[in-house]
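Recall that a protein's primary structure is simply its ordered list of amino acids. Everything else, from secondary elements to tertiary packing, is in principle encoded there. The following example makes that idea concrete.
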Amino acid sequence: MNNILKETLTDLEKTQKEFWNVSVQTGNFLNMLIKMNNSKSVLEIGTSNGYSGLWLLDALENTKGHLTTIEFYEKRQSVAIENYNKCGFNGKYTALQGSATDVIKAFSPDKKFDFIFIDANKREYVEYYELLKSHLTDRAIIAADNVNSHREKVQTFLDAICSDEDFQTEILDLPAGLSVSYKLK
C-alpha cells in the first residue's frame, strides 16, 4: 500500500459516520478476500466517497483486476473518483452512476463478476442478489455489509442467500456485520 493511499484512507476514516463507510477491519478483510480468491472482476454496489473502493482497488493491484462501482448520488461518486485518481488508480475502475437495480439490469448477459461487495440501499440487497446471480462466475464471493446493524432491512436477503444451495454463507461479527457467501459451482 503506497503512502498516498494510506494517508487517504486515514483521512477518510474521519468521515465514516457522514459517508457510512465500512470499518477499517471490514475494509482490510475485503482486501484480503479478494487477494485470497484471486478476484479479477469486482463489483461494488454503493461507492459513497470511495473508502471501501480504495481497499478493493488496492487488492486488485495484486490480482491485476478491475473494479466496477455503482453509486446513486453523483456528488458522492465525484468525491470517490477524485480519491481513486489521487491514489493512482486511474483506468483501473469503472464508475457507474444511478439506481443500482437499473444499472445492473442494463448489464449485458455475458458481464461476469467473481467478487461482489454490497453496501447500498439495505432493502434492495435481495433484489441485487437476484439480479446478479446470473452474472457470477463459479466460485464467486458475495460480501454484504450491515447485516447485523440493519438486520431487519436485510433479512429477506439473508433468508434468500442462506437458503440457496448454490452458496455457502457465514455471517461475521465485524463492525456492522458482514455476510460472506461463496458460490459453490
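The longest strand covers residues 136-145. Helices lie at 3-13, 16-19, 24-37, 51-63, 74-86, 100-105, 125-132, 151-163.
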